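Duplicate of earlier report; Starch-binding associating with outer membrane input re-posted below.
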Amino acid sequence: MKRKDYKIYSIMLITLVFLSGCKKALEIDPTTSYSSSNFWTETPQATAALYGAYNLLQGAMAPESVLYGEGRADNVVINPLALSSQTLNLLTNNLNSSLPITNWSAFYQVVNQSNLILKNTLEMKGKGLYLGKDAEYNSVRGQAFAIRAFCYFYMTRIWGKLPVVTEPFLDAKQSVSIGRSDTTAVYARIQADLDSAALAPIPASYTTTSATRAQFTMAAVNALYTDFYMWRHQYENALVASQKILTNSTYSLASLYSASSTIDYNINPALIDNTAYAQMFTKGFSNESIFEIDYNFAERATRSFLITVYGDLGFQPFFKASGYLSSKFSSMDLRSKVNFDTNSGIVKFFEKSGFVRGTQDDKNIIVYRLADIILLRAEALNKTGNIPGAMALVNQIRARAGASTYTDASYSGFNTDQIEDLILDERARELCYEGKRWFDLVRTGKAIKVMGPINGLNQTENFLWPLSLTEIRLNPLLDQNSYYQ
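Output:
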């Protein structure tokens, strides 16, 4: 796995342009360091700085995001042929502050980049550089707010209290003077940034399909709103935000099952690669995708390194599929053929035949897609007393996969908690290995119930991760999370 040696408040300003639709629009050289004398003097530089923030987000999310979301949960087991001390610590619930994954510096580098953009674009507008370019100004700033909100939301679910930083740092030594704010303050920052992105307003789409899926749009902001509100158990707000996505014709569920199909995937499992559902993960940028982290080895030599975590395909990744998850799929559920091979290898993100590790280990990381939001909305409907509405959404996801749908009689008499279990099981089947499961268990208060028998998890304080010892040494105002003191 990649080691990240980023400093928390690095002044690096990577302006690598990674969206093909924008390459010709920017006639400036990539810049690797910030200089007030030669930067922020024309609007394309600010746009390049925004792409630099997305580029930094690529580094923060690959492949750590799936480790954060899956490595402590029940969807995976250790691959004994690729035993790693870090992954063993995750699955056995023996986290410690020396593990590389406990370092938050890569996310704070993205935050600092966003802060640079927000500060300098405001000054650029004051100098008249955005005269007649309101849409460009709002787009750059709206996306920077959304990126910062995403980073803070991601981090607070892992570490809880955070240093809340809204000004860029030009001197890395300044970081030692910032302590952690409680989650109330962090949530307020996330809410304010999302509101600012929505009010900018952030664009609804961009000129290319890839850009619409790989940059923050208004739908991506609403997906983040939905996730944020569900994390905070604000179900009515989550219903409002999710409905805006469900009524947006830009997004639709990728096809998988067809009752009229004569294809037998048991005879030739590789044919599953031809479905829109499978290609959502192998090719990216599907109609179902709302926001994903874009990697492209051929054009930019960027990799998501998912093959180090998952896969079989002749390699030895960290994890294999757990029997517990595999048993949740019925024989008719085609998602099992997308997700696993016959050796319990996790092949969801890789072509079942013809995969080339050297050039194709650049599968995108899908952060939000329509099925995720539909199932979050189902949870919110259940929590607000609309069980039939919730189960109708669950059945929509099951029907797409070819699985049998729930009848009214099958859940008659179920209480809210039991319906929530059904929905979480469906999320486990639908979103497995996409970095959701651990957060689902914590968010719904079921982490101890599920993980206790597996690895002894028995204290809510243990839900948070330890802070990296490296960060604590750099900043004496940081206090370690209580469970690890």
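The chain has one domain: 43-174+183-450+467-474.

Merging into the original ticket.
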